[in-house]
Specification:
It is found in: Endomembrane system. This is TMEM165/GDT1 family protein. It is a multi-pass membrane protein. The protein is an all-alpha fold. It folds into 2 domains: about 200 residues, no CATH class; about 190 residues. It is flat.
């Protein structure tokens, strides 16, 4: 790789990593606090100066470590650090009383005040540690420039559009997204470290482990988790004070759910025990990894939806009123638990592609539609009246609604979207 390409790569990677690290960090909070007292350009210049100095020290340390340690062990240590960054970001950051006082009462030169405050705040911060880690992997000059750009860009974003983003994206959502990206970086570095230390290509090791037998058992485990969470969710979704509906539609929905569940669990079980072979065209370790990701995403969505139902029920018990749960995931989707169920089934189908699994997925989709359109939504509409009608008009069933309907109405009317 030519020096220019190496510099640009180091610059791009460092800018992206540090930008992600700064999302939700206390440095953004300090930037917002200073921006309420000083002009934006003064704050940005101060941040740039402080970051340049701190990150120059960081890359000096990182470059020294990179020249002294084997690259395989460096990658492994870096992977552990990035996983730690993910946990740190997920925990969240807040300004201490002394940091808030520093931002509010500092006097003298505005530029000097901002520079000194950010210099002290960044010493030992996770962005400094991230810069040290990056400098062990890439050229010091590119890391220095890129990390400085990433930090200044993130803090400038906080100053310019922080308030607007805060109204649309909850702080916790931003923190979770940043943590996930750090974990992805960490896992990638761990894979590189293992490959270098063992001299075995990562993908070759994965392909050797993830044959269709292993994929079948993994898919079965994920499927069982989805089934248990789905059963819990159906229990929580029952209208308080009422027994489950005994109408024909409810019976069909329960029957279809049961058949889809049995077939959906039988397919990976039969593949895992070598009774049934997956469709050869789609039997690939790469698809197993993708399918596992989709299935785990579906289970996570299902679990989050159930947890929010519990929170809504606790709030209803305290208030003594029947409260319609419209917060969290239900702010965008009316039935996130069912969306997660279908996504989990789709993921296991990708992991272990069989005709039996395809049939199970089709039956599950039909069961979900019958359950929602003919049983659950009419019951919610009767219970909550116009409150649910208005909520249904602005929120999609299974996917976020792009545009709200012009005239609110009951969920089964023609102008309501399927999604």
């Amino acid at each position: 790789m030519c020096p220019v390409d190496g510099f640009l790569l180091a610059c791009a990677v460092s800018a992206a990593v540090v930008f992600v690290a700064e999302l939700g960090d206390k440095s953004q909070l300090m930037a917002l606090a200073f921006a309420t007292r000083y002009r934006a350009w003064t704050v940005i210049v101060g941040i740039t100066v402080a970051t340049s100095v701190v990150h120059l020290l960081s890359v000096a340390v990182g470059h020294g470590l990179g020249a002294a340690l084997p690259t395989g062990w460096i990658s492994l240590i870096a992977a552990v650090m990035f996983l730690g960054f993910g946990a740190w970001t997920l925990r969240g950051d807040s300004l201490s009383d002394s940091e808030q006082a520093k931002a509010a009462r500092v006097g003298g030169s505005a530029l000097l005040a901002v520079t000194v405050a950010f210099f002290l705040a960044e010493l030992g911060d996770k962005t400094m540690l991230a810069t040290i880690t990056l400098a062990t992997q890439y050229g010091w000059a590119g890391v220095w420039v890129g990390s400085t750009i990433g930090m200044v860009a993130a803090d400038a974003l906080a100053i310019v559009v922080g308030r607007q983003l805060g109204k649309r994206l909850p702080e916790r959502t931003i923190a979770i997204g940043a943590a996930v990206l750090f974990v992805v970086f960490g896992l990638g570095l761990a894979a590189e470290a293992v490959a270098e230390l063992t001299q075995v290509p990562v993908w070759s090791a994965v392909a050797a482990v993830l044959d269709h037998h292993a994929a079948g058992w993994i898919a079965l485990g994920i499927g069982l988790a989805a089934v248990l969470l789905g059963a819990w969710g159906r229990h929580l979704a029952q209208v308080p004070g009422r027994r489950p509906s005994a109408g024909a539609a409810a019976g069909w929905a329960r029957g279809l759910f049961a058949v889809a569940t049995v077939l959906g669990l039988a397919a990976p079980l039969l593949v895992g025990t070598d009774v049934l072979d997956p469709i050869a065209l789609f039997d690939d370790p790469g698809l197993v990894v993708i399918g596992a990701g989709l299935a785990l995403l579906g289970v996570s969505l299902l679990l989050a939806a159930q947890a929010q139902v519990v929170q809504a029920q606790i709030a209803a018990a305290r208030s003594g009123d029947r409260v319609l749960a419209t917060g969290g995931l239900r702010r965008w989707v009316r039935h996130p638990g069912l969306t997660g169920t279908v996504l989990a089934m789709s993921g296991t189908l990708v992991m272990v592609p069989t005709v039996l699994g395809v049939l199970a997925a089709v039956l599950l989709v039909v069961a979900v539609q019958v359950q929602v359109r003919a049983v659950r939504e009419p019951a919610l509409a009767r219970l909550h009246g116009e409150t649910y009608t208005d909520y249904a008009a602005r929120t999609g069933r299974f996917l976020p609604r792009v545009t709200p309907v012009e005239h609110p109405g009951l969920p089964h009317r023609e102008h309501m979207r399927v999604g």
